[in-house]
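Could someone model fe (ii) ion with this protein?
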Amino acid sequence: MKKTVSKLLNAQVNKEFFSAYLYLGIAKFFTKQDLPGFANWYKVQAEEETEHAMKIYDYLLDQDEDVALDKIAAVNVDFKDALEAAKEADKHERYITAEIEKIMDAAVKEKDYRTQIFLNWFISEQEEEERNSKEMITKIEMLGSDKKNLYLLDKELGSRE
Ligand SMILES: [Fe+2]
Ligand SMILES: [Fe+2]
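Reply:
Sure, complex below.
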């Protein structure tokens, strides 16, 4: 594997673990707001992010590359309200999409066909992630201002496994 590609994949392992960290932070915020359903939804999301990181970790090792496991950045979870937390998650997913696309650009440039196929999964996954994070904003905007509706939405989000 070319150095440019392996460096970007290594950085992405760290970014996916940071995503897990961010979602744990958001989950914690909702637990403190007495919204266990929201907290559950973001905890499940954090688990998904760990899986993303592990997918790249395994891929790098399978290709006889090293995995750096650098320091994970701290998370700031001082949100004003549920909407702000959801918007932060959405902003982050858009950033992650751009980062995945950068790795794809490098793989195309280096004619690394194997990594291109590997990254296809992440390209589709980011479409799902962006759809989910956008949907969350819409739901909070539609239902979040009313206490009864917020309670029902929290119940719905609690069912994510
Ligand atoms: Fe991810
Ligand atoms: Fe996902």
